[in-house]
Amino acid sequence: MQQVGNAITILGILVTLVAYFGQHSGVSLADLEPSLMARWRRARGWARRRLGRGKANTINLNAAIEISSAMSAKLSVWSPIQPGDDIAVRADKLERNLDQLRDDFHETRTEHDARVRELEQRLTGQISDLDKLVANRHEESRHAATTAMKWEVRGLLLTLVGAGLSILG
């Protein structure tokens, strides 16, 4: 009975490990336990140095610079003010230029506001998707941990019952 309890406890531990690594699939051990991997690399380097199996270090310097820019240009028709123009004509041309500038500003601001609203909606959608994913992962994690814990407790109980029966018997 004690062996059965030990086997079920080991089964629970294996279920825990499978659930843990199932949740972290695609993640390397270095990401999960960076200090353990650092110790492993140091120990391996120490052993290689002691055994004389070092490797030649080469340094490659490569640089890639990519610059991209996007610009948009808008054509505006201005009324040029000539030095020989009358003051009333200058004022009229200045007023037309200011009206054109206001119209351009209003149009640009409307386009900008539309882009901002679009980005806000897209980001809100992405945030809600991420919240759903996190909630789903949390539920899966809780379910896996609960299942593994049940197996471990069952195995521990059978181990204790087997030990108790062997003492009594």
Polypeptide structure, described:
Helix content is 75%, strand content 0%. It is mostly helical and 169 residues long. It has one domain. Helix 1 packs antiparallel against helix 4 (87-168). The longest helix has 82 residues, at 87-168. 2% of the residues are buried.
Secondary-structure map with pairings?
Layout: H1 2-23, H2 29-32, H3 34-51, H4 87-168
Biggest β-sheet description? none
The percent of residues in helical segments reads: over 70%
Oligomeric state: single chain
Average the pLDDT over all residues and give the rounded result.
76
Total domain modules: 1
Report, as a whole number of angstroms, the end-to-end distance.
13 Å
**Coarse shape:** elongated
Q: How big is the Rg? A: 36 Å
Tell me how many strands there are.
0
What fraction strand?
under 5%
* Low-confidence blocks of residues: 63-69
Structural class assignment: mainly alpha
Following the backbone from N to C, one meets helices and strands in this order, namely HHHH
Number of helices: 4
Brief write-up:
The chain is mainly alpha-helical and 169 residues long. It has helices spanning 2-23, 29-32, 34-51, 87-168. 2% of the residues are buried.
Characteristic key phrases:
single chain, 169 residues, mainly alpha, 4 helices
